[in-house]
């Protein structure tokens, strides 16, 4: 069987499966990034709030999830949440093992790790906002929640784009580790294909190539987003 | 959670630490050498070398380490020519494949760090050295490298720490590192949290120590940036 | 005049283009030992480029540079530019020319003393102890004898520039090149650097100085060269040029400088 047969869309071809895997990779990474955004915002808020205990918790969370292997976090979240769920199920009378869906566990794991880094991105983005703009909002009597919605959040997002672009790429690559849970994302599909056809080289090269497509498309998207977002900003002369 | 179990777990994981450290140290060192080569190719002025370097970085930074690892460990064995060659005894060993894969991956990230550090050397100081008659390797060794090194340290420390975390992946290619042993303990004893938590603690302490070491080196090398002690 | 009658430094018909823009259109200069030549001109006149071509920080397209009787060998390239034929000769000649930069360019990771002994020890291969002694003496001479183990970032601009001058002197250069040495300094620090330069001139050092400091050009130099758009517009002793030059452009230039100084 040639490469074309193996990776193509014919009857024995894995092309469709690989593309579906790539789609799953995109979905779980996006979910992970969103979870990470939630955690990251909390971390950033905790550090910016001036509340010492909260800042300590935020820093501890970030330090822990930056300092342990991503693979370990994925195992921990997957096995741990399944054990938790099984325990809860047993309590209400359901016997046996109850597994948490691999997608949810994977997204949560990737998100929890991403959040540790997104905290710094959001904090930096917030600090980059000119103090004067916030004072001007106060001066016209804008209530805090409105100020957040209209002035702070859009600007934070704008300044955060480069950092988030980078973390998105990290999430895409971290998502490959979710394959250990059996989730049918791109890495797992490549692995299954390799195993079932005994052609590991073909499938891992194919999978790698698809990852390259995903990451380069992502770079383009974020470059465009950054260009549009920084339209109004004055950039340093050259 | 009984103490006996915890300490047994801790000791068994500790016993696996040397393998983790070996993989880490070798891949960081080899990766750094490859990275220096890649950076040199990039700044050499040759369009071809620069393109090769950029292509390498694109491939190894644009794809997950796991698929690179599997490609090398599982994929290379399909080539009969490779199996017959002198490289095979080297490449059939999981340890060697793992170190090779991790080294190739970190080389891509490291070379970008080195490239940025080189670009950050103030051009005027390089010109001042040239104006004194310095050139070639002497110029690099006495002026460019020391300044670039100081610029590279913060980002490079992050990369080195990424590498300790990356070593956990070798558990997926039959090596008995800390990660593998933790999973085995979990499988054997059906205890979910403890082995993973202890393993996590070991990695965390390891990374903490590495970060501290880098901070110490940075401190030692940056007397010129601190306020003068009278 | 030096012992065998050759000039300290001689540049003949130097031309330099950046792409299609010709910045130096044929400039010649000869300096005997002890000459202090101020090179003046508005921005874009090519004066810094001229100085940087002398020690080949920029490569001239045409022209020769001769230092102490030795001419730098150049070879022409296909695209019309040129390059030095012998790297070792360039390094050797550069070590006879001490350059002082507008932005000081002291090596930031080394102390002042280490800055001073770096080239003498590693390029000129002189004994370390001798270089250290001479460095201390030079630092005292420029007025920062107590700053030997300071890092550049811990000193003011004027102190850094004086250290940079000492660094150039440490190489025992035949000719010193100054590229706008006071332009990056706060006004109150300019004086201390000019004083050092003046004392060097009075010692009989051969100096080529690109500068905007009219007082230095007028009072300290033995000759003034005024560049305009890549050519020598006026040249001669300061008394002649400042006393009422034939060149209209030069008269406009100095009156413009005087206005700026007010």
Structure notes:
The complex is a heterotrimer of chains A (238), B (230) and C (262). With 238 residues, chain A is mainly alpha-helical. Chain A has a single domain (16-229), classed as MetI-like fold, CATH 1.10.3720.10. Chain A has nine helices and no strands. In chain A, helix 3 (52-67) packs across helix 5, helix 6 (131-139) packs antiparallel against helix 7 (144-174) and helix 7 runs antiparallel to helix 9 (200-229). The longest helix of chain A is centred in the N-terminal third of the chain and has 34 residues, at 15-48. Chain B is 80% helix and 0% strand. Chain B has ten helices and no strands. Chain B is flat. In chain C, 37% of the residues lie in helices and 25% in strands. Chain C has nine helices and twelve strands. In chain C, the strands form three sheets. A six-stranded mixed beta sheet of chain C has the order 8-9-10-3-11-12, sandwiched between helices. In chain C, helix 3 (112-122) packs parallel to helix 5 (157-169) and helix 5 (157-169) runs parallel beside helix 6. Chain C is globular, with a radius of gyration of 18 Å. In chain C, 48% of the residues are buried. Chains in contact: A-B, B-C.
CATH architecture of chain B: Orthogonal Bundle
Tell me the domain tally of chain B: 1
Under CATH, the topology of chain B can be stated as MetI-like fold
**Radius of gyration of CA atoms of chain C, rounded to a whole number:** 18 Å
The coarse overall form of chain B would be: flat
Widest sheet, order of strands of chain C? 8-9-10-3-11-12
SS strand fraction of chain B: under 5%
- How far apart are the termini of chain B? 55 Å
Keywords, please?
heterotrimer; A: 238 residues; mainly alpha; 9 helices; 78% helix; 0% strand; C: 262 residues; alpha/beta; 6-stranded mixed sheet; 4-stranded antiparallel sheet; 25% strand; globular
């Amino acid at each position: 069987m040639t490469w074309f047969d193996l990776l193509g869309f014919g009857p024995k071809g894995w092309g469709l499966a690989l593309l579906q895997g790539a789609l799953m990779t995109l979905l779980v990474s996006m979910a992970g990034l969103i979870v990470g955004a939630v955690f990251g915002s909390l971390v950033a808020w905790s550090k910016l709030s001036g509340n010492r205990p909260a800042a300590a918790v935020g820093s501890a969370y970030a330090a822990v999830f930056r300092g342990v292997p991503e693979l370990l976090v994925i195992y921990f979240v997957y096995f741990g949440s399944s054990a938790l769920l099984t325990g809860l199920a047993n309590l209400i009378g359901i016997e046996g093992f109850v597994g948490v869906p691999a997608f949810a566990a994977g997204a949560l794991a990737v998100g929890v790790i991403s959040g540790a880094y997104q905290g710094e991105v959001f904090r930096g983005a917030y600090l980059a906002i000119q103090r004067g703009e916030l004072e001007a909002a106060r001066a016209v009597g804008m209530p805090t929640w409105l100020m957040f919605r209209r002035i702070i959040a859009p600007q934070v997002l704008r300044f955060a784009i480069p950092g988030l672009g980078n973390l998105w790429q990290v999430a895409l690559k971290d998502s490959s580790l979710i394959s250990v849970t059996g989730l049918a994302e791109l890495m797992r599909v490549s692995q299954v294909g390799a195993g079932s056809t005994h052609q590991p080289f073909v499938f891992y090269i194919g999978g790698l190539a698809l990852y390259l497509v995903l990451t380069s498309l992502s770079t383009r998207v974020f470059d465009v987003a950054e260009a549009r977002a920084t339209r109004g900003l004055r950039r340093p002369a050259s | 959670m009984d103490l006996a179990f915890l300490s047994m777990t801790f000791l068994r994981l500790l016993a696996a630490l040397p393998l983790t450290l070996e993989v880490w140290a070798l891949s960081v060192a080899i990766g750094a050498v490859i990275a220096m080569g890649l950076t040199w190719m990039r700044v050499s002025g040759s369009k071809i070398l620069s393109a090769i370097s950029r292509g390498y970085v694109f491939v190894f930074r644009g794809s997950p380490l796991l698929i690179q690892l599997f490609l090398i460990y599982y994929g290379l064995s399909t080539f009969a020519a490779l199996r017959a060659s002198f490289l095979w005894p080297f490449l059939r060993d999981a340890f060697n494949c793992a170190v090779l894969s991790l080294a190739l991956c970190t080389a891509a990230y490291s070379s970008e760090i080195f490239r940025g550090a080189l670009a950050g050397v103030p051009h005027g100081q390089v010109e001042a050295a040239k104006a004194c008659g310095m050139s070639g390797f002497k110029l690099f060794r006495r002026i460019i490298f020391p300044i670039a090194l100081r610029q590279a340290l913060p980002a490079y420390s992050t990369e080195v720490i990424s590498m300790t975390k990356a070593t956990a992946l070798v558990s997926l290619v039959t090596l008995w590192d800390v990660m593998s042993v933790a999973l085995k303990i979990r499988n054997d004893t059906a205890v979910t949290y403890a082995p993973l938590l202890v393993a996590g603690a070991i990695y965390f302490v390891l990374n903490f120590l590495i970060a501290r070491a880098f901070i110490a080196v940075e401190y030692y090398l940056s007397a010129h940036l601190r306020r003068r002690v009278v | 005049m030096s012992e065998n009658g050759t000039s300290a430094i001689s540049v003949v018909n130097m031309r330099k283009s950046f792409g299609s823009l010709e910045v130096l259109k044929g400039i010649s200069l000869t300096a005997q030992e002890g000459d202090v030549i101020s090179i003046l001109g508005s921005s874009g006149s090519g004066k810094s480029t001229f100085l940087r071509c002398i020690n080949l920080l920029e490569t001239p397209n045409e022209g020769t540079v001769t230092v102490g009787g030795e001419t730098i060998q150049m070879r022409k390239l296909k695209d019309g530019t040129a390059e030095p034929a012998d790297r070792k000769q360039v390094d050797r000649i550069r070590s006879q020319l001490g350059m002082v930069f507008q932005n000081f360019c002291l090596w930031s990771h080394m102390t002042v003393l280490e800055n001073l002994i770096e080239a003498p020890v590693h390029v000129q291969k002189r004994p370390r102890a001798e270089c250290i002694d001479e460095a201390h003496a030079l630092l005292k001479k420029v007025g920062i004898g107590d700053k030997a183990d300071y890092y550049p970032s811990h000193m003011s601009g004027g102190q850094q520039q004086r250290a940079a001058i000492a660094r150039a002197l440490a190489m025992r250069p035949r000719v010193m090149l100054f590229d706008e040495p006071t332009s990056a300094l706060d006004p109150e620090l300019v004086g201390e650097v000019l004083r050092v330069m003046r004392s060097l001139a009075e010692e009989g050092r051969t100096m080529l100085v690109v500068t905007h400091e009219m007082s230095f050009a007028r009072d300290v130099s033995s000759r003034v060269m005024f560049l305009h758009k890549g050519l020598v517009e006026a040249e001669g002793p300061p008394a002649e040029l400042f006393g009422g030059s034939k060149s209209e452009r030069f008269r406009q230039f100095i009156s413009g400088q005087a206005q700026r100084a007010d």
